[in-house]
Amino acid sequence: MAIPWFKYASPASFYGLAGRMVPWFTALAIASALVGLWIGLVAAPTDFQQGDSYRIIYIHVPAAWMGMFVYLVMAGWAAAGLVFNTRLSGMMVQALAPTGALFTFIALWTGALWGRPTWGAYWVWDARLTSTLILLFLYLGYLALRASIDDARRADRAGAVLVLVGAINVPIIYFSVRWWNTLHQGASVNLQGSSMATVMLTGMLVMAFAAWMYTLAVSLARVRAIIIERERHAAWVAALPREGSPAGG
């Protein structure tokens, strides 16, 4: 059976779909986070070089991955909005941005905490750290740009251009350890395999899955609020049941 993808490009249709998905993604996020933290903090062995300080990777690495990945997803939605002129695309970019900014901030903060015992300093102007800081500024710049434009459709278009231009920073972050002499080590996980112990890798991947499920749950809940705000004059919004009243009342 073909899935009617274009049907869900309508905010009215997507609102109901998102509402059905949020509880599932929330449950998956909580369950996988509990499992991932148990693996990372209890089951995983102590590293022979860094001791227990390495355990911050179970927060730092998933946060860094999600900071970059969410921005790329935003860029995809931004491109779709400019090409197809769909209202939902701009709403999704707006919904994803705060979560992407949060993960990028967490990556920088936990990286500073990890850097102190590893490098002897909380911050150095390392290529990867600097490009990740630029990513945070791109998120904040997008949010500031949206807040400065009253018309939602104009804000969508201006924000989409900013997001697409800023997307070039994501491969710079990823490849910075190859292109420049940085303090960061090369990737421990890639398409060819991993240099990490299996239990350590498992814990990190489970935490990355939890971060992704959290992103989906929060962003879908946020986009529902954005849809209601933007479509508040539409007949279908007026027909929605009010909180505290019987369904259909």
Oligomerization state: single chain
Can you write the helix and strand succession as a string?
Answer: HHHHHHEEHH
Give a quick account of the main beta sheet: strands, pairing sense, barrel closure: 2 strands, antiparallel
Number of self-contained structural domains: 1
Number of strands: 2
- How much helical structure, as a percent, in the residues? over 70%
> Unreliable segments (pLDDT under 50, ≥5 consecutive)?
244-249
The 3D shape can be described as globular
- Rg is 20 Å
* Count of runs of 4 or more consecutive helical residues: 8
Q: Average pLDDT, to the nearest integer? A: 87
**How much of the residues is beta strand, in percent?**
under 5%
Estimated structural class: mainly alpha
Cα distance spanning the termini: 34 Å
Q: In which order are the strands of the major sheet placed?
A: 1-2
Question: How would you characterize this protein structure?
Answer:
This protein has 249 residues and is an all-alpha fold. It has one domain (18-43, 53-187, 194-231). The chain has 8 helices and 2 strands; from the N terminus they run H-H-H-H-H-H-E-E-H-H. It has helices at 11-43, 57-84, 87-119, 127-148, 152-166, 169-179, 198-230, 235-238, and strands at residues 189-190, 193-194. It has a two-stranded antiparallel ribbon. A hairpin with a 2-residue loop joins strand 1 (189-190) and strand 2. Helix 2 (57-84) packs across helix 5 (152-166) and helix 3 crosses helix 5 (152-166). The longest helix is centred in the first third of the chain and has 33 residues, at 11-43. The chain is globular.
